[in-house]
Design goal:
The structure is a single chain. By secondary structure, the chain is α/β, with parallel strands linked by helices. Helix content is about 45%, strand content about 15%. The strands form two sheets. The protein has a four-stranded parallel sheet. Strands 7-6-5-8 form a four-stranded parallel sheet, sandwiched between helices. α3 links the parallel β2 and β3. α2 runs parallel beside α3 and α5 crosses α7. It is globular.
Length: about 290
């Protein structure tokens, strides 16, 4: 949806943002190449990246030929401050290219605007169609939550379809107190674009912020255990930043009875297994 709009707008360059091991940035670079667009990535360095020996998503970014700008976090700087600073760098870069006659398109952090959110509205409808064909009613859906686009799109899809499924958005980092209000606003932008009269509220979101510790891109013991469990039982790979911690949350809810026995539980796997090939500080103790 986002890059479709970029093509419609006649863009030559696509800017997007994330951490050095961002799944979103890597996938944007790949999709840009498929569409003949030139990707420019501004990446925030939480864990020191060795650019002469790139790993994981950063290696793939280079293989895709993306123009990469790595911005280091500063001592005492909050995540919000770091993001504001490197977004300002990117904005100036974009202005320069535009002044030289190049058309640019900016994909927000995580693709989380109303256009990107529509993708997960459609995804929820697709899931519901699959469940209906199987005759299954989902009681819970767990998924990882970063910039909020996945969470918002799924919640909008749930509202549009009148679903009673409980959505649990598991934070990969701590979100501020205004986050759900901002996501409700984002959801309402998507609903307006879709031409409906439904309204999203902050109360429509259920977020778990108890399972991301010790921090973003920092491995956790429960997350590592969840990765190993799914790998050894199902042959499926999770990542240490997002999906591993989200699956650890699901397991915790089941073990503590927050999710009752005999419930139909869906884990929405958001990918990211390339992070298993990232720096040791991100990977943690998996073996």
């Amino acid at each position: 949806y986002l890059l479709g709009q970029a093509v419609e707008n006649g863009a030559e360059y696509v800017f997007t943002y994330g951490a050095t091991q961002s799944n979103h940035a890597m996938q944007t670079a790949a999709a840009c190449r498929k569409l003949g667009l030139k990707p420019i990535l501004y990446l925030l360095e939480f864990v020191t990246a060795n650019e002469s020996n790139c790993k994981g998503n950063l290696l793939l970014d280079k293989i895709f030929g993306a123009e990469i700008h790595i911005v280091k976090t500063l001592p005492g700087e909050t995540l919000f401050d770091s993001t504001e600073r490197y977004m300002a760098y990117a904005h100036r870069h974009m202005e320069k290219l535009e002044s030289e006659g190049h058309k640019c398109y900016s994909v927000p952090l995580g693709g989380s605007n109303y256009v990107g959110t529509i993708g997960f509205v459609a995804a929820y409808a697709e899931l519901q169609e699959q469940l209906d064909l199987l005759g299954i009613e989902a009681d819970y859906i767990f998924h990882a939550n970063g910039s909020g686009g996945t969470m918002t799109g799924l919640a909008v899809g749930k509202k549009l379809l009148g679903s009673a499924t409980d959505l649990i958005a598991v934070g990969a980092a701590e979100h501020d107190a205004d986050f759900t209000a901002a996501m409700a606003e984002l959801g309402n932008e998507a609903l307006e674009w879709l031409g409906t009269e439904q309204v999203m509220h902050a109360a429509d979101f259920v977020m778990d912020e108890e399972h991301f510790a010790p921090g973003y891109e920092m491995p956790s013991k429960p997350g590592s255990e969840a990765i190993k469990l799914l790998a050894t039982q199902e042959g499926l790979l999770l990542d240490p930043v997002y999906s591993g911690k989200a699956f650890a949350c699901l397991l915790d809810y089941v073990r503590t009875g927050k999710v009752p026995q005999n419930s139909n539980v869906i884990f929405w796997h958001t990918g990211g297994a390339t992070a298993l090939f990232a720096e040791k500080e991100i990977l943690g103790e998996l073996f």
